[in-house]
Amino acid sequence: MVARKPKVIVTRKLPDPVETRMRELFDAELNVDDVPFTRARLADALARADVLAPTITDKIDAELIAGAGEKLKLIANFGVGVDHIDIPAALAKGIAVTNTPGVLTEDTADLTMALIMAVARRILEGAQAVQAGTFTGWTPTWMMGRRVTGKRLGIIGMGRIGQAVARRAKAFGLQIHYHNRKPVSSRIAEELEATYWESLDQMLARVDIVSVHSPHTPATYHLLSARRLKLLQPHAIVINTARGEIIDEQALADLLAQGKIAGAGLDVFEFEPTINAKLLKLPNAVLLPHMGSATLEGRIDMGEKVIINIRTWMDGHKPPDRILPQML
Ligand code: 8YV
User: In terms of Cα–Cα distance, which of 187, 263, 259, 254 is closest to 225?
Assistant: First the structure.
């Protein structure tokens, strides 16, 4: 239990309602200018804070955690993915880590569907043609994409977001296939009419669209390796709204350029914010700036979760969204 207001250092600008509430509840140090923290500034924040509220743009490694002050007891991440934080190092030092699951599920699933449609139906190319003035009238064979209805979607990672994508995709007439550590409950499998593949390799060879929804962990790094990407059919589309590191980005760019994979819709990148130069030149790649959870409502809900996690910890309880060792 912390009697005084805890010093909470927030590393990026958050939506106004979140920042206002943080000021009311905590001794909050906000980053109103939104200049990303340097490593030195991050080290200073870790040394002074009771609670750090970072985002994906803060790489918090074991060395930084080793230098954290005795006071630091909680890293309340703004975001669900925590692959930018060395969790074992934090837990070993007695620092709890929380995230914001659940509140960005629907927004991320919406953006996933938008990418599937954008790639299959060439929406970006069409819009660019209109803007460039090259649309001179309808023709029977111009801007033909591929039909989505009736195709097979292979979902990698059937957690909250994977399931939310499956629900939407089913309504679009897609057949749902998935690869996961274990099958979903029979109730969910029946609702989604989903086919489970224990072997990712076997699923990849059979689907028309593959969409990544697993967390980035040592086990999922380059899960879509060059070898696995080559298993896809030439008309296949690859979608990623999870983490860039899960796909071998260079191999994907090469296969797209060679026409061995038909298209890609990517919201995340292996070396974010640097984008592979080859990908940037490809007309069959729709590239977005990591905006899966970027809705006003979603970002306020994420901030609320951060506040709830900090408040519960202040009151001497276990914060609801703690990352536990067995989750890693
Ligand atoms: C967040 C995300 O906006 O929550 C995540 O894991 O990938 C994004 O949608 C970002 O991580 C905020 O830290």
Answer: 254
| Ligand 1 near 101 CB (within 6 A) | no
pLDDT in tens, 226-238: 999 999 999 999 9
Q: Is 125 a catalytic residue?
A: no
pLDDT of 3 reads: 63
In terms of Cα–Cα distance, which of 17, 16, 59, 61 is closest to 34? 16
- Decide if 272 is catalytic: yes
The model's pTM is 0.96
| 43 belongs to a structural domain | yes
Q: Regarding predicted confidence, which is higher, 152 or 326?
A: 152
- Same domain flag for 300 and 179: no
Domain that holds residue 157: 105-287
Angle (deg, nearest 10), helices 105-120 and 123-132 = 60
Going by CA atoms, what residue is nearest to atom 4 of ligand 1?
A: 79
Does the Cβ of 162 fall within 6 Å of ligand 1? no
CATH number at residue 193: 3.40.50.720
Count how many domains the chain has: 2
299 classed as catalytic: no
- If asked whether residues 225 and 301 sit together in one domain, one would say no
pLDDT in tens, 45-55: 999 999 999 99
